[in-house]
Design goal:
Layout: H1 5-8, H2 19-32, H3 43-63, H4 66-76, H5 89-107, H6 111-138, H7 147-179
């Protein structure tokens, strides 16, 4: 079972945590669970402290990174299961068109075409970011019965971003090829 890092840090579940509070909790627990301070404890207690220190490091690493945090929260709610990652048809059509343009670049490297696709990806990305921002910001204040709908919107956003990331990775390869 996945540990609940928000409970571990005694923080509310949010996509936009208070960075200072997060860091404060991390440092407080780092001191509390530092193995050197428990060297005289029983071997069982030392193992427990080591587990808690590792949990603290993993919690901070996950919650301080926006992408890892988003995937983590969606995972906590069972929304990133394999095979359940359908996306809206209109988005898939846009991505298909971008992928077709990438395939053309495979055969005919063209710096202008790379730039054009990159601009399209950036515009899509900016639109998605602007659309999801209010949902992310308002999530902690939502009633519990409304959160599942917000999580579905965030899940769709997350999956779209992953698609666009793959396209950006392909673009960077083409960009270096067309420069040579």
């Amino acid at each position: 079972m996945t540990p609940n890092y928000f409970e571990f840090y005694d923080l509310p579940e949010t996509f936009q945590p208070d960075a200072a509070a997060l860091k404060r909790q991390y440092y407080t627990l780092s001191r509390e669970y530092h193995p050197d301070f428990h060297a005289t404890e029983s071997p069982e207690r030392q193992q427990e402290i080591l587990h808690l220190a590792t949990l603290n490091t993993n919690a901070y690493r996950t919650l301080s990174d926006p992408d890892l945090r988003m995937a983590y929260i969606l995972g906590l709610h069972g929304l990133l299961e394999e095979g359940k990652q359908e996306l809206p048809a209109d988005f898939l059509m846009e991505v298909m068109e971008l992928n077709e343009q990438l395939m053309e670049l495979e055969f005919e490297p063209d710096a202008e075409a790379v730039q054009r696709v990159e601009n399209e990806v950036n515009a899509l990305s900016e639109t998605f970011d602007a659309g999801i921002e209010p949902v992310l910001a308002g999530y902690p204040g939502l009633p519990v019965d409304v959160r599942p709908q917000a999580l579905q919107q965030i899940r769709t956003y997350y999956l779209k971003r992953r698609y666009l990331l793959r396209i950006r990775e392909s673009l960077s390869k083409f960009a270096t090829r067309s420069e040579s």
